[in-house]
Design goal:
- It is a single chain.
- This protein is α/β, with parallel strands linked by helices.
- The protein has helices at about 15-20, 30-40, 70-95, 115-125, 140-150, 185-190, 200-205, 220-225; strands at about 10-15, 45-50, 100-105, 110-115, 130, 155-160, 165-170, 180, 185, 210-215, 235.
- The protein has a 9-stranded mixed sheet with strand order 4-3-5-2-1-6-10-11-9, with helices on both faces.
Length: about 240
């Protein structure tokens, strides 16, 4: 069994990761695949918190929200993250992993309210904690929520799971010879305007020296590889 190099992590998942190739909604097969990978890492003794996006249902800054009030659209996006959080919780518990969904917006019938000390206690009791509804405030992305929650629970690293292998100087889907960075500083990300996470999220991590590892979720076993110290993806650090 490989030895993890991190004891407590925050995993950032996009909503699109749960949709897989269908592009919208939740693909039950893909959700259970992701849950199985999380269970594998959890079995190593790693404490895992998760922030999940809602782009597979609704994105407050997308074309579908163009005519809407931004605050209303963002609240709709927060509710979309809760759908994903509940779907992932269900898949995790079918894998035998106890989990808790904590919401930044009160909805007592389906999730606990986010209370920092309670979240940390869940992690200490070996439960996976899924943070839903972003920060609970409009104008802040789920990337920013991931940075904020990671610092609140004293995570050692943010693992951002994406559909590409790391951070590139251009979109690798469009530019075939785009260069990937093995390591890059927070300031370089901000100066180059790289679309890794939004500037608020990067700045929060920079101010608190919280490293971020960007990696490809579509390669089976990559979460475990990152947690056990394999050099994959891109590292954002001071």
């Amino acid at each position: 069994m490989s030895t993890p190099v991190f004891k407590r992590i925050l995993l950032k998942l996009s909503g699109e990761a749960l949709a897989a190739n269908q592009g919208f909604g939740v693909d039950p097969v893909r959700v259970h695949e992701i849950a199985a990978e999380i269970q594998d890492v959890h079995s190593l003794g790693v404490q895992i918190a998760i922030v999940i996006g809602g782009g597979n249902f609704f994105r407050g800054v997308a074309e579908q929200a163009r005519e809407m009030d931004r605050v209303t659209a963002d609240h709709m996006g927060m509710l979309a993250t809760m759908i994903n959080a509940l779907a992932l919780q269900d898949a995790l518990e079918k894998c035998g992993v106890y989990s808790r969904v904590m919401s930044a917006i009160e909805m007592h019938e389906v999730a606990e309210p986010f209370i920092r000390r309670r979240a940390i206690r869940h992690l200490e009791k070996e439960r996976v904690v899924i943070f839903g509804a972003g920060t609970g405030s409009p104008y802040f992305s789920t990337d920013t929520a991931a940075s904020l929650r990671a610092m609140e629970i004293k995570a050692e690293v943010i693992l951002k799971a994406t559909k590409v292998d790391g951070i590139y100087d251009a979109d690798p889907v469009i530019v075939k010879d785009a260069k990937m960075f093995d390591q890059i500083s927070y300031m370089e990300v901000l100066k180059k305007g790289l679309k890794v996470m939004d500037a608020t999220a990067i700045s929060l991590c920079k101010d608190n020296n919280l490293p971020i590892i960007i990696f490809n979720l579509n390669h089976h076993g990559n979460i475990r590889r990152v947690v056990t110290g394999e050099k994959i993806g891109s590292l954002v650090s001071p």
